TrEMBL record:
Pfam families documented for this protein: Acyl_transf_3 (PF01757)
UniProt keyword list: Acyltransferase, Membrane, Transferase, Transmembrane, Transmembrane helix
Transmembrane spans: 7-27, 39-58, 79-100, 106-124, 159-179, 191-214, 226-245, 251-272, 284-305, 317-337
Annotated protein name in UniProt: Acyltransferase
Native organism: Massilia violaceinigra
Domain Acyltransferase residue range list: 11-331
Molecular-function annotations in GO: acyltransferase activity
Highest taxon of the lineage: Bacteria
Length: 358
């Protein structure tokens, strides 16, 4: 296991930046519809990061006897509370529609929607698998990958890892051939669930493979000081170059495939070798702390603000100002939720379930 001082700070920073990019994408109504072109690929970065972090935190414990069911409980404690809060916030527009204040937004009976949301299960009867909080589709696939990882870990040697990644990459290539105009923007709808499965299948297990290679002793020496700063800048520049790119339509499918299967794993591996400290480490830790609350709360909260402004027929300049205020309030709110609500609640849940809190 590699300690946080070696690489976690920079990975936390990447996770926070990716969450900010996803928020920008989903709140385009504030910015006149402008979004970062390839921002949907940030989810694939999350999947690789998840593989690294989960393997680092749990692989040794699973091999030492941690039961897969106990592991599943730990992952639910980590993901579920803020997911539930986001889903409850997503109920507000539904309630407004039931009162006649907004147009109907659901084709599925509300009790079934509530049951599926409570169980973190997708609804194939809706255009979005998680209509109360659409980004939750990636949590569903990530949790599935986590559970599969724990279930097959005893057999998960290099050959099986390579087979899973190869099969997932081939699935992505087939999906791109079938719908090249879609790119790899899939997984959130019933028609694209297979794409989501392949995205998480490649990304998560690529993260596991990266950590194992990093721990094998064949890696380059850790970079510190100015070298770490330079490496971190190169990683950030590479990430932004991918997400801001506008590849020609014929090349977009293969651009997406190369980004997901090669560029993102390479960037994360470079980041793993950077040891940052001081204010840089503090900034990365802050970005990491807000990343998950931001990811699961920005859509329902943004919809509430957008719905209210839509009722007032706010012009574009007002919308842009509202977007800035929204982001300015949401980011510190996410930090407070992480520090004062989610972290204490998770510690309490772990103690209640007899889990030692370190």
């Amino acid at each position: 296991m590699i300690t946080k001082e070696h690489y976690f700070h920079l990975l936390d920073g990447l996770r926070g930046i990716a969450a900010l990019i996803v928020m920008w994408r989903h709140t385009g109504y504030f910015w006149g519809g402008w979004t970062i072109p390839q921002s949907y690929l940030a989810v694939d970065l999350f999947f690789v990061l998840s593989g690294v972090v989960v393997a680092n935190a749990y692989e040794a414990r699973l091999r030492a006897g941690l039961a897969p069911a106990r592991f599943a409980l730990l992952r639910l404690i980590r993901l579920y509370p803020l997911y539930l809060l986001g889903s409850l916030l997503g109920l507000i527009p539904v309630a407004a529609a039931l009162l006649g204040l907004l147009p109907p937004s659901l084709a599925t009976p509300l009790p079934l929607v509530l049951l599926a949301a409570a169980l973190l299960l997708p609804l194939v009867s809706e255009p979005n698998l998680f209509p109360l909080n659409s980004p939750a589709w990636s949590l569903f696939f990530e949790l599935g990958a986590n559970l599969a990882y724990a279930a097959v870990l005893r057999y998960l040697d290099s050959a099986l890892l390579a087979a899973i990644m190869l099969a997932s990459a081939l699935g992505l290539a087939l999906a791109l051939q079938a719908a090249p105009g879609q790119g790899l923007h899939g997984g959130y709808s019933p028609a694209t669930m297979a794409v989501g499965l392949c995205r998480v299948g490649y990304g998560f297990f690529a993260g596991v493979a990266l950590l194992r290679y990093f721990n094998s002793g064949r890696r380059a020496p850790l970079r510190r000081g100015a070298r770490a700063w330079l490496c971190g800048a190169l990683v950030l520049a590479g990430l932004l170059a991918v997400l801001l790119a506008r590849p020609p339509a014929p090349l977009r499918p293969w651009f997406d495939l190369a980004a997901v299967t090669m560029v993102f794993p390479l960037l994360i591996y470079l980041a793993m070798g950077c040891r940052v400290s001081g204010r840089a480490a503090q900034a990365c830790a802050l970005l990491g702390a807000i990343s998950y609350p931001l990811y699961v709360l920005h859509v329902p909260l943004g919809r509430l603000v957008n719905g209210a402004l839509g009722q007032l027929l706010a012009p574009p300049p007002v919308m842009a100002v509202a977007g800035l205020v929204f982001a300015g309030v949401l980011l510190p709110l996410c930090w407070l939720l992480d520090q004062r609500v989610d972290a204490p609640l998770r510690r309490w849940l772990m103690r209640r379930n007899g889990i030692v809190v370190k």
